[in-house]
Amino acid sequence: MISPENFTHGGNGIVYRLHQQGKGFLPVRADLVKEEAAGNNVISKVLSITNAKNIYYGHRIANLLLPGSVIEVVGTEVAEERFALGVNRLMNVYSLDAKVNPDHATYSAHMIIDHHEKVMVCNCEVCRTHHELHRWIYKEAEKLFTELGNIGIYVPLNDPSDYCFIPTSGKKPHVIFFEIERIDPVILEEYLDGLEGLNSNQVEAFKLLQHYNKINSLRTLFLGIFQQLRHGIKAC
Ligand SMILES: [Zn+2]
Ligand SMILES: [Zn+2]
Q1: pLDDT at 20 over 60
Q2: Using one digit for the tens of pLDDT, what is the confidence trace for 134-170?
């Protein structure tokens, strides 16, 4: 059985640490799960299923092309909890623990959300010290943000709760992002097309990009049909 412990919260979800002793139903080996509300009507169900798949592909592609740049997402699913009065749908994103500075969870959990942005308002010792560390890693985070952006992968540099660093013996901090905001598949494909002779990681990334595009096409198709049905109903 999983007994999740509230680990930290993101802008749009809660991250739990998973204790997997005796677990029976986890689809993958994971340390953490981020739960997001997925909406309960048909359209939001389809959108969250396609989102979940593309979150998985996006993270895999980013790590194949720039290893260690984002957390290792090992699986995603849309789970349903049934109650007498209906269904509660959640999108679960399973990942491995990135082993970042341990104070980050507290730093992130003590932030508040103001106008859809995470803001640091806490003045505790952990937050003040960790905030200073974030000033130190900002240049590296910005560099990684640009590198990923150049190949069509966009990460949230403006939200310090969405990235941190893994302590290493190296001089430069190893920055890692916890989330991908969006991917531009056209830029990504152009980048891969422009390379001369793909290495095995790039070949794999190319394959995953085709899956990503397929999911996007299905999503567009579904939305188109849904729109037509709605117009049809109005016209009747
Ligand atoms: Zn604090
Ligand atoms: Zn941090």
Answers
A1: no
A2: 999 999 999 999 999 999 999 999 999 999 999 988 8
**DSSP E strand stretches across the chain:** 5-9, 14-17, 32-37, 73-83, 86-95, 112-114, 117-119, 153-154, 163-166, 174-177, 182-183
Q: Quote the number of domains for the chain.
A: 1
In this prediction, residue 27 carries a pLDDT of: 60
From the number of C-beta atoms within 10 Å of its C-beta (0-12, 13-18, 19+), residue 60 rates as buried
pLDDT value for 116: 76
189 CA distance to ligand 2 middle (Å): 32
Tell me which ligand sits closest to the C-alpha of residue 165.
2
Whether 54 is in a domain gets the answer: yes
Q: Measured between alpha carbons, how far is 51 from 15 in angstroms, rounded to an integer?
A: 18
Is 206 a domain residue?
A: no
Where is 98: in which H helix or E strand? none
Q: Does residue 22 surpass a pLDDT of 50?
A: no
pTM: 0.88
Asked whether residue 19 is domain-assigned, the answer is yes
> For residue 69, what are the domain limits?
5-189
- Does residue 203 fall inside a structural domain? no
Distance CA 231, CA 108 (A): 44
Instruction: Report CA(106)–ligand 1 centroid distance (Å).
Output: 6
Q: Where is 231: in which H helix or E strand?
A: helix 200-235
Ligand 1 centroid–CA 109 distance in Å is: 8
d(CA 152, CA 158): 17
